[in-house]
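In this section we walk through a basic example: taking a raw amino acid sequence and producing a predicted 3D structure, encoded as discrete structure tokens. The instruction is simple. Fold the sequence below.
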Amino acid sequence: MNKNFQDITRRTVGADIFKIEDIQTLWSGYGKIMRYGIYGGDRDSVVIKYVKLPDQSLHPRGWNTDLSHQRKIRSYQVETNWYQNWAGLCDDSCPIPHCLAIESSKDEFLMVLEDLDASGFPVRKDSASMIEMQACLKWLASLHAIFMGKEPTGLWPVGTYWHLDTRPDELEVMKDFTLKQAATRIDQKLRATPYQTFVHGDAKLANFCFSSDGQQVAAVDFQYVGGGCGIKDVAYFISSCLYDEDCERYEEELLDWYFAQLKEALVKHKSPVNPADIEEDWRALFPVAWADFHRFMKGWSPGHWKIHGYSERITRNVVAQLNAENI
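The resulting token sequence is shown next.
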């Protein structure tokens, strides 16, 4: 982290800082998330997300194309816009880290964030119980209710990192030609819902931070937040938690829970939309949202564990229904 950014962090916390640990490296080596301690400040630590755009001439090939690079740059711009202009609307029902400072230059971004570990969310999960999945779905329901009907100014017009318009390379190499031909119609179906909100855009289990008892969560990583149908977050989240047979077994229970929480959140936030109407529309779009992410996975990583029987069956049914509608 450059000296200027270190000075900004010191001024922000009003004290000297020292590095405690690297939490993780950002995707494709674009920087780091680090925890810094504070000498004598009003908090013990902060988390710093530091982005340093790499020299593309030194970057490996594969998916590291110029389009991929530009998408990542845009994602960090979106995340800074999120914290500057939108994050303040989140309440205790969908906790996120408070942003203490943001700074950017031509090829660097700095975000100084509240340390969620110190704020009561110290646990990370690589598998989740039903109670823990329900806590995450409740968080998503709150987010979707708060931002229902809002225009995603400064964010992705259509959120999620796998959105079709931003993934032409993955579509081009996909071997499933039936799904390939249906990709645009799947995308259009999701765009057509009258119930648009903000989606987190990368709501996988790894981006939720849990309380010690697993009943409360906060979320991080808002690079792909934007407009869209909230059920996309739900389908993607469930896909990050469950294997083939469990998707089948728990789908209805998890959707029932999510829609109950969404109804409660919409009432709480005095939304003018009818929760029953949203549920009818979004529940029907759940398999479409699942097929949309499956389309991305089949192009991006054909051997991935998420490409399993449940996903294939759901997607085949969606494509068959879309084809029947076109007859």
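Looking at the output, two observations stand out. Residues 3-114 form a domain with the Phosphorylase Kinase; domain 1 fold (CATH 3.30.200.20). The first strand starts at residue 17 and ends at 25. In the next section we compare this with other chains.
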